[in-house]
Amino acid sequence: MMKGVTQGFEYRMKVVYSHFPMQLKVEGKKLLIGNFLGEKKARSANILGETKVKAGADQVTITGINKEDVGQTAANIEQATKIKRFDPRVFQDGIYIVEKIL
Questions:
Q1: Under CATH, which architecture does the 2-101 domain have?
Q2: For all residues of the chain together, what is the average pLDDT?
């Protein structure tokens, strides 16, 4: 509890794509993921609580003082890019958790 208030929690996620580059944009309490596997409609992931999300070209950084909100936001982003209609062994596009700084 004290560690979260003084230092905060941070998750780093890597954006992985092979052909269609993803476009990430933070709008309010949602992260919009555009052009995922060439889809026209943008996918969205909820940002919980006081969590701050910084989206770069190939990395997403999630920071906050509440461990549960930061972890659930990272899980929401990872689940939003889950591939359902293709073989996941071949199509490995997505946003994955790379590092947890607690």
A1: Alpha-Beta Complex (3.90)
A2: 92
